[in-house]
Amino acid sequence: MNEDLHRPSFSPTPARAVFDNLRYRLRKWATAEVLAPIADSILHPSHWRIRALGFCTLVGHPLFYGIWAFWLPQPYENLWLRLLMAVGGAALLAIAMMTHSPPSRAAGIALSGIFWLTLPWFFTWMYFCNSGNAVWLASMAAMLLIYYQLTDWRLATVGAAGGVLLAWLAFANFGPSVPPVPSDAANTVVLAFCWFMSIILGVSTSNVRREQLNSTLDTMGIMAHELRTPLATMQLIGEALRNEAPAHPGEAGERLEQLAQRVHNLVRNMNHQIDMQMTNARLMRLAAHAERLSAAELVQRAITNYPFRSSRERQCVVIRVYGDFHFVGSERLFLQVIDNLTKNALRSLAAAFSATRPGDLLIEIGAHGARGRIVFTDNGVGMEPELQARIFQPFFSTDRGTGHGLGLAFCQRVVQAAQGTIRVKSARHHGAVFTVELPVA
C-alpha cells in the first residue's frame, strides 16, 4: 500500500491560497505575453515595408536638417549625424539581404540595429542636446509610437530603454554645452504617457494577432474534422467492394479486391493526415498532460503506425537505438512530433528525384549523461541556410505548394514544453538533420 495515502494533507490558509493564485496568474501571463511570443515575429518585413522605411530614413534626415537648421532653427543640429542616420536608410535600400524573402537572421539583427540607432538613440540624443524643447518633446513622443509600430513591443521596450540610457550617457560625457532639460515634471509626464500607451497598443496588437491565429487554427481544425464524413462514406464503399469481390472469380474479383485495398489505404492515409492537422491546429493550446515515456518505444510505435505510401517508402526508414532513454512529455503530442518529422523527411526524399534506399531516412536514438537525443537524418533536397532560421515559425513552409507551415512550429512547442530543444542542420542538395534533445527522466 502506498504510504503517501496515509500522510495527512494540509490545505493552505486563505491568504496563502490567494497569493499562490496571483503568482500562478502572473506566471501564466508572463509566459503567454513575454516568454513565448511565437505568434509574433520580432520584425514584420516585406519588400514594400523595408523599402518605404529605407526611403523615409534616407530622405527624411537631410530634409529635417534643412527644416530645423534654416527654416525653423533649433538650438542644436548636426549635419554629419543626420547624414550618418541617412546611411542607415540607404543600407535598407541597397543591401540585398534587407529585402530578401524570407529574411535571414543577419538581416533581422541588422534591421533591429538600424531602427534602434535611428530612433531611440538618435532622438534621445537630440532631445537632450535641444534642452527638451517643445519640438523635440513632440519628436520623442512620435518616435516612441513609431518604434513600437516597427517592431515587437518586447524588443521595442528593451530597445527604447537602452537607447535612452546610452544617449543620456553619451550626452553627459560628449554632449554640447547647452541648457539642461527643464527640471519640471511636464516633459516626464508627457513622455511617460506616450511610452505607456505605446506599450499598451503594442500588447493589444500582439493579442489581436494571436486571436487571429487562434481563429485560423480553429477553422483549420473544423475543416479537417468535417472531411471525416466523406471519408466514412469512402470507407463504406471500400468495404462494399471487398464484400463483392468473392462473387466475381478470376481477374475481375482480383481487381475489385485491389480497388478496395486502394480505397482502404487512401482513407487510412487521409484520416492520419486529418489527425495531424487537427493536432497542429492546437498549436497555441497544447495539452498539459505529461507522463514518463520511452524514446525507443515511442519512435517504433510512430513508425509502425505511419501510413507509408509504398513498401519502398517504408523500407527507406531505418531506426537505430544506441541506448534508450526516458523523458517526461505527452505521448500523443510526441507521436505527432515524430509523424511531422517523418512526413517532412519523406517529402524531401520524394523531391530529390531519386529512388529511395534503406537508410535514406535514419532515425537514431541515444543518450549521453542527462540528455537524450532523437536524430532524424535524411538524404533529401535539404535547404538553404536562410530558410533554416525561419522553419520553426508558424505558417512558414519550404514547400510552397502544399505546406501550411504549422508542423515544425508545433514540434518546437511540444519539445520546448518538455524542457527540450529541436534544431536543424542542412545544406542545399545535402539532406537535413533534425535533432530533438530532451532531459532524461
UniProtKB/TrEMBL annotation:
One of its GO terms (molecular function) is kinase activity. Keywords: Kinase, Membrane, Phosphoprotein, Transferase, Transmembrane, Transmembrane helix. It is an enzyme of class 2 (transferase). It comes from the Bacteria. CDD domains: HisKA. It catalyses: ATP + protein L-histidine = ADP + protein N-phospho-L-histidine. Pfam families: HATPase_c, HisKA. The chain crosses the membrane at residues 52-73, 79-99, 106-128, 155-174, 186-203. The keyword Cytoplasm does not apply. Residues 222-441 form the Histidine kinase domain. Its EC number is 2.7.13.3. PANTHER family: OSMOLARITY TWO-COMPONENT SYSTEM PROTEIN SSK1, TWO-COMPONENT HISTIDINE KINASE. This is histidine kinase. It comes from Ramlibacter alkalitolerans.
